[in-house]
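Form 7-S
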Amino acid sequence: MPIKYVRTEGVFQYLSKEDIKTALEPLVTTGFLEADMQAIHQAVSALPWVDTVAVKRIWPDTIDIKVTEKKPYTRWGKDSLITEQGVIFAPKTLDLHQQLIVVTAPEQRRLDVLEIMKGIKTALADESLELAEFTINNRWSWNIKLTSGLDILLGREEQLKKLQRFLKTLPLLGKQQVDAMAVVDLRYPNGYAVTWKTEAPVIDRETVNTPEDGNIANQQN
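Output:
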């Protein structure tokens, strides 16, 4: 009783049925009753884009495989993706996911990091800013980068409070000054320092204070 049909069901955006077929070929050349369901399950589950797999025999000659695909939430480091549930996986290419936010952080804290990133993303969006990269090092020091190229250094303490304080100053600064910023260093208790782009126009910034009377220090490249 040979296996005549291998039926794969699922809605795929990135997963290739050819990849599934290649993984299954060594396992479905046996008889219908001799086919190893556990080995088939493991072979399909090992494919990077596969989230869940269900395998069963359908009498008299069919193996039915139901597959769900992983949904990428952000990029994780340079070579991987991560789902919203914290599953990290490395597909063959990230060419179709260059637009996703890049998150780099200690892997054991990945669920905490994703929640923090959501909050930062929302806070930035409220000011019409877009997050491009979020980095946390092993000492829990935070850095973020915007799609505009602006780097924001948040340090290791009260990062969200400092970010909110900075965002409150943006209406006072105006678009021209914000666009001229290259790096904003928020690792100060009562203010922040700015490194300006080399082509930025000369602007008198000494009179601009944060809403909490925190000073903005001027650092010119």
